[in-house]
Amino acid sequence: MTYLFGPFRRSMDFRSRATRRESWAFTLLFVILQVGIFVGSAVLSAFVYPMVKANRDPLFFWAMRSMVIVAILFVLPMLAVQVRRLHDLGRSGWFVLLHILPLVGPLVLTVMMLLPGKRGSNAYGPDPRTQGSELASVFN
Questions:
Q1: What is the C-alpha separation between 128 and 124, in angstroms, rounded?
Q2: Ramachandran region of residue 117, left (φ > 0), alpha (ψ -120 to 50) or beta?
Q3: Is the pLDDT confidence value at 18 over 70?
Q4: Residue 139: its pLDDT value, please?
Q5: Do the beta carbons of residue 128 and residue 16 sit within 8 Å?
Q6: DSSP 11-40
Q7: Rounded to whole angstroms, how far apart are CA atoms 59 and 45?
Q8: Residue 65 contacts by C-beta under 8 Å, 6 or more apart in sequence?
Q9: At 5, which helix (H) or strand (E)?
Q10: 37 and 63 Cβ atoms separated by less than 8 Å
């Protein structure tokens, strides 16, 4: 559970490091919520409003609003966990700006997020995989 909800507690921590597990668990939570809202509203819409056109379906509009709200709630913690993940690789958090580049930027960042982090301490703090360092990095 700390991997899923820990990034919310550490949403203003752009200085320490994050493991692959923390980064990908949080990303998976975001994707599951977004897909769940979209698919759930589509299924409900098919049963509740079968004759209503999609552009007049109130469930569709509530689903889109819900997805935007979830995205807004996740933007800062997601950015922070990505910066911390880059720090675990020994890279600057500014690499997160690769998201701006169409197609290539997100692909490069995804590959970087899949790479194993540097063992031991680096310029961004202690290794998050060692016992006790994760709790200590919250207070640094």
A1: 11
A2: beta
A3: yes
A4: 40
A5: yes
A6: TT--SS---HHHHHHHHHHHHHHHHHHHHH
A7: 6
A8: none
A9: helix 2-9
A10: yes
Q: What is the pLDDT, as a whole number, of residue 59? A: 76
Cβ partners under 8 Å of residue 119, min gap 6: 127, 129
Residue 131 pLDDT more than 80? no
Q: Are 98 and 27 in contact (CB under 8 A)?
A: no
Q: What is the pLDDT of residues 44-71, one digit of tens each?
A: 877 776 665 555 667 778 888 999 999 9
Q: From residue 52, give the alpha-carbon distance in Å to each of 37, 55, 57, 107.
A: 19, 8, 6, 39
The tokens for 60 are 């569709």
Q: Which residue has the tokens 């990505």?
A: 82
Tell me if the pTM is above 0.90.
no
Name the pLDDT band for 138 (thresholds 50, 70, 90).
very low
Per the structure block, which two tokens stand in for 19?
């493991």
Bridge partners of 122, per DSSP, are 125
Q: Please name the amino acid found at residue 45.
A: S
- Dihedrals φ, ψ of 121, to 5°? -70, 150
Rounded to whole angstroms, the Cα distance separating 90 from 99 reads: 19
